[in-house]
Amino acid sequence: MGRILVTGGSGFIGWHLVRALAERGERVRCLVRSTSNVDRIRPLGVGLVQGDLRDRAALAEAVADCQVVYHLAGCTKAFHPKTLFDLNETAVRRLAEACAEQPSPPVLVAVSSLAAAGPAIDGRLRTEADPAEPVSTYGKSKRAGEVVLEQRAGDLPITIVRPPIVVGEGDLAGLEIFRPIARFGLHVVPGWGQECFSLIHAADLAEGLILAAETGRRLPSPGAEGAPPGEGYYFLASDDHPTYADLGRMIGPALGRRVRVVPTPPRTIWLVAAMSELGGRLRGQAPPLNFDKARDARAGSWICSPRKAREELGFSVGVSLEERLRQTAAWYRKQGWL
Fold it and tell me: pTM higher than 0.90, yes or no?
């Protein structure tokens, strides 16, 4: 494979992908902001292009001579919907334009989210053929980015990956689940905890993204006939679908702690979201849980099927979720985060 660009390479998932690519001997460059912490990826020998997705000159430099572009950069939480759509829709359009302007457009593998597809339908696993039904502003902004790419599919080869909850080393959001279990042996479950969730470890996701670039099917050109629903889309997930309560019970042994699961009334999540959002506004930093995230949390189960990725990409998760959680807990401890 020729030169590869990763946007969002300094982030949690990006670090895992860049490391996997570097271990394969690939020539990787990353588009990074001036404020990005590149301490984890710099030792991997990657090239760095300073700029962001609003900088057309930096984008042109970043995508030049690349055969594959992995787009991981985006926004998961913000105080204003405009911010989400600027980074998850408008920025995607700029990147696609920059790729399409190349003499030989690269394969673009874009990381979206299960949130763009929506929660489970009647309790069954979502598949790529299901119509998208996002419920949160975040999910709608990611879906808007997908639509942009569908419209550009005639200009360059594009594959879209929708991961569910991603866990693993370097994950600050997951740390908020591990920390109270490590410190107090408590796992607070918003609602009564009957909803199920798909998960994937960042290292497994990275391997799936590489497979999607190498052998994945691409989005059909606009107006193309005969393409099956969901062509060019993949869910990458493990086969486990624990409830949130069960996830806490799985994390306990990884930390060497007995876990007490504390269910709370469903309405509590709105109170916690309100307090979290107020605190975030006072700090000037969008919190992990806000009203928008609460909409997703109260929408039911978030489960998806990896069957299509298994059949078309040869994707598989060879390490159990329990082992991945132990691995993550050990890394948190080594970093002193717990």
Answer: yes
